[in-house]
Amino acid sequence: MPTLTPGERHDSVLTFLERRKSVPLSLFRGPGPDAPTLRRLIGIAARVPDHGRLEPWRFIIYRPDDGARIGEALAELALERNPQMREDELDRERKRLSRAPVAVGVVSTAADHERIPVWEQFLSAGAAAMNLVTAATACGFAVNWVTGWYSDDAEARAILGLSPDERMAGVVHIGNHDAAVPDRPRPDVDALISDYAGPATP
Ligand SMILES: Cc1cc2nc3c(=O)[nH]c(=O)nc-3n(C[C@H](O)[C@H](O)[C@H](O)COP(=O)(O)O)c2cc1C
Question: Does 21 contact ligand 1 (Cβ within 6 A)?
C-alpha cells in the first residue's frame, strides 16, 4: 500500500477521532472481527512510532475459550490473594477475559537498551494499543482498553502468557454493540494548553 503523499488530507479521519469513544464491556456482544480483519487491525497497531526500531511490543490474541480458562485461573489466584472473596466477585474474575468475542493483549517487551530509554519503549506500546483501539473503532467495532489488577500482578501476567520481563500495556477488547453509549465528560482542553513561559521553577 502506498504511504501518504505530501499534504494529503483526511478530514473524515479528523471527524472520526473527534467522535471516537469506548464502549462499556457490559454492552459487548458478538460478532468480533474475522481473522483477516483482526490481522489487518493488528498490522495497523504495529504501525507506530518506535524509537530505534526496537519493536518493543507483541500481541496475544485471547478468544473466548482462552478467556474462560484464563478466567478460572484468575479466580483461583484472586481467591488465594483474598480468601474472603464472594462468589459474585469470583464470577467477575472468571469473566474478565471472555466479555468480548476477542481480546488482544498489547504486551510491552521493553528492555534496557544502551540508547533508547525503557520509558520510550513503554510509550510505543501505549501508542500500539491506541492504534488498535482507533483502527478497530474505525471498523465499526465496540472497543475497550483495560488493564485490570491482573496486569499488575506477576503471577496473573504469567497466566495471561506474559514472561517475567514483559508488561501488559493493555487488553483491547473488540466486539459489537447495539445500545447507544453516551459520551463521557471530556477534558477542558483550553485549560490544559499554555504558551511556553520559560524554564520551570523548582
Ligand atoms: C492504560 C489504560 C488502562 C485502563 N484500564 C482500565 C481498567 O482496568 N478498567 C477500566 O474500567 N477502565 C480502564 N481504562 C479506561 C477505559 O479504557 C475507558 O473505557 C476509557 O478511558 C474511556 O475513554 P474513551 O471513551 O476516550 O476511550 C484504561 C485506560 C488506559 C489508557
Answer: yes
For residue 121, give the CATH number of its domain: 3.40.109.10
148 pocket-lining for ligand 1 (C-beta < 6 Å): yes
Chain segment 132-141, per-residue pLDDT in tens: 999 999 999 9
Range of the domain at 78: 24-176
Instruction: Write the DSSP string, 12-56.
Output: HHHHHHHH-----GGG-BS----HHHHHHHHHHHT-S--TTS---
Tens digit of pLDDT for each residue in 99-116?
999 999 999 999 999 999
CA of 72 to the centre of ligand 1 (A): 23
Alpha helix (H) residue ranges in 3-153: 11-19, 35-45, 64-81, 87-95, 118-138
Number of domains in the chain: 1
Could you tell me the pTM of the whole model?
0.97
